[in-house]
Write a structure and sequence with these properties.
With about 600 residues, the chain is an alpha+beta fold. It has three domains: about 35-130, no CATH class; about 145-180 and about 210-330 and about 480-525, Nucleotidyltransferase, domain 5 (2-Layer Sandwich); about 340-460, no CATH class. Helices cover about 25% and strands about 15% of the residues. It has helices at about 35-45, 45-55, 70-80, 90-95, 100-105, 115-125, 145-155, 285-295, 310, 320-325, 375-385, 425, 470-475, 480-490, 505-525, and strands at about 1-5, 10, 25, 130, 140, 165-175, 215-220, 225, 235, 245-260, 270-280, 305, 330, 340, 350, 355, 395-400, 405-410, 450. Strands 6, 9, 10, 11, 12 and 13 form a six-stranded mixed β-sheet that branches. A hairpin with a 6-residue loop joins strand 4 and strand 5 (about 140). Helix 3 (about 70-80) crosses helix 15 and helix 7 (about 145-155) runs parallel beside helix 15. The protein starts with a strand and ends in a 67-residue tail after the last helix. The relative contact order is 0.12. This is Transposase DDE domain-containing protein. It comes from Kocuria salsicia.
């Protein structure tokens, strides 16, 4: 009998020269590492899982075979073993590969089947689906999806790394596993939409499962559905890694990352919030959902750094909502936003969304932007040109009125940044360090207070002047979220098409949150050197570490070994006592007292 090297097939020799059908040998599955199980179990000890266990467990009827904590732990183990992937079939294999002690630690008392696991994911997805109240028409869900995803992502992070009040948000693409159908129908003369995906009331009757031949159709949101996934939509992604920009079908993951305050040392980025939406959906709405989810989790957000995917939206949908929440933003401006407009009163102008006096020289009104391939020397020179405009700008006075959307600003002569002929006190300043305005003989607002409303370029307004040194330092911290996207897809994970193979927005978001939580665990282990499953270090300041026993009991004395059980050791002679008050020396043959 001969066995092929490197394969698991054996071909017995036949004396008649007729080849037999090869028989496949049974392969032994690898066991699950204890450290992976410990990290998954520690992560799922979060308060969210306990609350989910109470809200998602029925009080009547047959009890669940497996708890929600057990099911989430098994799926997280699969995400930890295979970076960037989470398949329900492999998660079931994880349950079979666990040792008896590991099964007891996870909570598996019975056999876990594929139907049980997928049914649990589907049940949790239905609980997170918004339904309309027939009486009030309000959209509600048993478990808010944004809160569920954010809690799962934050579960592995220790409390000392969750105190940042500055947040950066960015969106990354998650391509659907299912292929599009009927994209070229318009070229053949066939109209794109073939029908509606849902009934008149989508909350009362679930949509029928579509096949590839029925596509494309109009989805419930009015957008074209090209795949069998009812929630996947067509979106745009920029080119990277030598790949051109293109469109894709799937979802957008809006991830929030805590950034260190200005002046503190930067650390490895950790995902602290997650919201999933169909590709091409409104990014400003998803960004606000991330902020609200973080607020409900106890994270007080004061400042946010975002790119133009959020800040370029309408002011009433993004900037005004941030103002209502008391959050300042640091943003980059599009070339169409770097313009000059007349101010609300004579003698003032709006430059790059900020209020200036019209004495600002024309050579300083448009220094230019910051292109991507700009060198460091050119960038520093451009920032210095923007710093020269600071003396002519109005300064914020107090906090904004959240209800009315107004903000007060003081003139530069009051704050002592310029010398105005209409303000005698400012003319006593040093002319070598303060520029002098050309307000002589005319009315000006260099020494007055102006109130701006939500219609006065609120979309472009920010407390740090655009292009200045403070703005560059603050906006540069947005790279933390870009670093996390690279960790999710390259360095500490490999999230790509096929890594998640489920349908609907809720189920895809649930698995994506577990994949992102596994990425946080790897970042903590590799970048921070912190194993979340390791026991806490002992308290060295406690003089009696063994005294923490039952109340009213004396700590037990250490046990004395029996005589004759240890190795024989010769006794030393007793030490001699010195006879005088001089420094003591041992009594030897060379030195005697």
């Amino acid at each position: 009998m001969t066995i092929k090297t490197g394969t698991c097939w054996q071909e017995p020799a036949c004396p008649h020269g007729v080849a037999r059908v090869p028989r496949k040998q049974r392969q032994l599955a690898d066991s699950v590492a204890n450290e992976v199980v410990n990290r998954a179990v520690t992560t799922m000890q979060a308060p969210l899982v306990e609350e989910l266990q109470q809200r998602m467990t029925a009080s009547t009827g047959r009890r669940r075979t497996h708890s929600w904590r057990t099911l989430l732990t098994v799926m997280l183990i699969d995400a930890l073993e295979r970076p960037g992937e989470l398949h329900c079939t492999r998660a079931c294999d994880v349950a079979h590969r666990l040792s008896p002690s590991q099964r007891a630690r996870v909570g598996l008392s019975q056999r876990l089947t594929y139907r049980q696991l997928t049914g649990a994911v589907e049940s949790l997805g239905r609980a997170a689906t918004e339904t309309a109240d027939p009486v009030t028409g309000e959209l509600r869900s048993s478990v808010p999806l944004s809160d569920l995803l954010t809690s799962l992502v934050r579960a592995p992070i220790p409390d000392d790394l969750l105190g940042s009040r500055n947040v950066a948000i960015d969106a990354t693409d998650l391509e659907s596993h299912y292929s599009p159908h009927g994209r070229n129908n318009t070229k053949r003369g066939v109209p794109k939409p073939q029908g509606r995906a849902t009934a008149k009331d989508p909350s009362s009757k679930p949509p029928r499962r579509r096949k590839g031949g029925d596509l494309p159709i109009l989805g419930a949101d009015g957008r074209t559905q090209h795949t069998v996934d009812p929630d996947a939509r067509e979106g745009y992604r920029a080119g990277k890694n030598l790949k051109p920009k293109e469109t894709f079908f799937g979802y957008n993951l809006h991830i929030a990352v805590g950034v260190p305050p200005e002046g503190e040392r930067a650390q490895a980025a950790l995902a602290q919030g997650l919201v999933i939406c169909p590709a091409g959906a409104d990014s400003d709405r998803a960004g606000l959902q991330v902020i609200d989810a973080l607020t409900r989790q106890g994270a007080a957000v004061d400042r946010i750094c975002v790119d133009r995917g959020y800040s370029y939206r309408l002011a009433m949908g993004w900037a005004r909502e941030l103002q209502r929440r008391g959050i300042d933003q640091t943003i980059d401006l599009h070339r169409t936003q770097r313009t000059t407009h007349p101010g609300p009163v004579p003698g003032t102008i709006f430059v790059d969304g900020h209020l200036f006096i019209d004495s600002l020289p024309r050579s300083m009104r448009d220094p230019g932007g910051f292109p991507q391939m700009q060198t460091v020397e050119d960038r520093l020179k451009r920032i210095a040109e923007y710093d020269n405009r600071i003396p002519y700008a109005f300064s914020r006075l107090g906090r904004p009125d959240r209800e009315r959307g107004t903000q007060r600003y003081r003139g530069p002569a009051v704050t002592g940044k310029v010398r105005c002929p209409n303000n005698p006190a400012s003319m006593r300043l040093d002319p070598a360090s303060r520029p002098t305005t050309n307000c002589a003989g005319r009315e000006c607002y260099c020494s007055r207070t102006i109130t701006l409303g939500p219609d006065d370029f609120l979309r472009e307004r920010q407390d740090h002047l655009y292009g200045t040194t403070k703005w560059a330092k603050d906006y540069g911290r947005r790279n933390h979220v870009e670093s996390l996207n690279a960790s999710l897809k390259t360095h500490h994970g490999g999230l790509r098409r096929g890594g998640i193979r489920v349908q609907t927005l809720q189920r895809t978001g649930l698995l994506a949150a577990l994949v992102l939580a596994a990425t946080n665990v790897r970042i903590l282990t590799e970048a921070y050197g912190r194993d979340i499953s390791a026991p806490a270090p002992p308290n060295t300041t406690d003089p009696q570490p063994h005294a923490a026993g039952r109340a009213g009991r004396t700590p037990r004395r250490p046990r004395t070994p029996k005589r004759g059980t240890g190795p024989h050791r010769a006794k030393d002679p007793p030490p001699r006592t010195p006879t005088d008050t001089t420094d003591w020396l041992p009594a030897t043959k060379a030195h005697k007292c």
